[in-house]
Amino acid sequence: MNERVVPEPERRRRRPTKQGTVLSAEVIISTALRLLAQHGAEALTVRRLGAALGADPSAIYRYFHNTDDLLLAIADELIARAQHDWRSTGDWVADLRTIGLRIHAAYQAHPQAALLAAYRTTGRQNEARAVETILGVLRGAGFPDPEAVAIYHAFVDQGLAFAALDAAADALPAPARAADLAVWQRHYARLPAETHPNIAATARLLVTDMRRSGYPLALELLLSAASARLAALKAPPGPA
């Protein structure tokens, strides 16, 4: 693709496309998300985007350097959706819990896009705002900067890792997804206690629990560990 993106004032299309759409970066991103949901990663091409927009594919070049530039914009859009209307409560644990669940939900709403975007670093406005917000919550809670950065890293990586894992499961064709879940019922629930006593003892719980994401509990465990870490940092030193 062309390596030169046309400056904003010059790239605005004065006339609608054949489908009556006035092109913008936002419209292209929304269309790309729709195509990814319908057709998966192979849909992220200039030709398909142009066809869906009713525009010449070369028009996409006026907004994005290449498809990777578009992918980074998609990743940044998912981050923006996770932050939409978020307000701090002043309770750092509650705030991080909400942020984490919002990130996970935003990626789960677009599993095909999440598979491509969850591991990317965009360096764009919405990502920078998220980094600033999370670090602000941690520093405001009283974590020293090295601790704030370390916990930020663990918090974000955990959320995005689960987002990618759960997105991969959600993106499976329905028969494959159902077959994977059925393994717990058909195979693990039937293993004998003589050879697999722990699985046999918990089989009914496994069948139920493995149908949902492990992220909410993993998030709570991380927040509990961070709370204990902060309490230890604030505790008065013991006797010499």
Describe this structure in words.
With 240 residues, this protein is mainly α. The protein folds into two domains: 8-65, Orthogonal Bundle (Arc Repressor Mutant, subunit A); 74-232, Tetracycline Repressor, domain 2 (Orthogonal Bundle). The protein is 66% helix and 0% strand. The chain is built from eleven helices and no strands. It has helices at 8-11, 25-39, 46-53, 67-83, 92-108, 111-117, 125-141, 145-171, 174-186, 197-209, 215-234. Helix 2 packs across helix 4 (67-83), helix 5 (92-108) runs antiparallel to helix 11 (215-234) and helix 9 (174-186) runs antiparallel to helix 10 (197-209). It is flat and about 70 Å long. The N and C termini lie far apart (66 Å). The model has no long low-confidence stretch (mean pLDDT 90).
Cα shape = flat
The class by helix and strand makeup works out as mainly alpha
Range of strand content: under 5%
Into which percent range does the helicity of residues fall?
55-70%
By CATH, the superfamily of the largest domain comes out as Tetracycline Repressor, domain 2
**Treating each run of at least 4 consecutive H or I residues as one helix, how many helices?**
11
Tell me briefly what this model is.
The protein is an all-alpha fold. It has eleven helices and no strands. It has two domains: 8-65, Arc Repressor Mutant, subunit A (Orthogonal Bundle), CATH 1.10.10; 74-232, Orthogonal Bundle (Tetracycline Repressor, domain 2), CATH 1.10.357.10.
Question: Can you tag this structure with a few keywords?
Answer:
single chain, 240 residues, mainly alpha, Tetracycline Repressor, domain 2, 11 helices, 66% helix
